[in-house]
Amino acid sequence: xxxxxxxxxxxxxxxxxxxxxxxxxxxxxxxxxxxxxxxxxxxxxxxxxxxxxxxxxxxxxxxxxxxxxxxxxxxxxxxxxxxxxxxxxxxxxxxxxxxxxxxxxxxxxxxxxxxxxxxxxxxxxxxxxxxxxxxxxxxxxxxxxxxxxxxxxxxxxxxxxxx
Length: 163
Known about the structure:
The protein is α+β, with helices and mostly antiparallel strands. 17% of the residues lie in helices and 25% in strands. A hairpin with a 5-residue loop joins β1 and β2.
């Protein structure tokens, strides 16, 4: 996918994204500010979640590609946050990106927050559950139409609910 030419608007939008404080609430996070899921201790999360799910959701880990059974999940339903059950994706939004992680071209925007991630030395946009703040994955601008976005999600951070 070719990048659009730099314009004054694009430069300003990029600069403002770089300046934005990563801890500020995004999308629907303010709606969940007093939710009980925000008061769960790290020890409680460790008891509630399997090992790798705990590492990903609570400490921004990453599962190995091509290991999630959700890559092959094609039934109708929703993909929910494994930490708190908040619906994040519809199965109709899922596509095979070839990356080895469950990928979606659309997300329930009210149920995620985002922040800037420089962990690999390059700017990326991390997204997380708005209710429990559990890390889900990163969003990239190389997805299919109609959005052009690819929400690259850790399968261990999701549960599938047939519908």
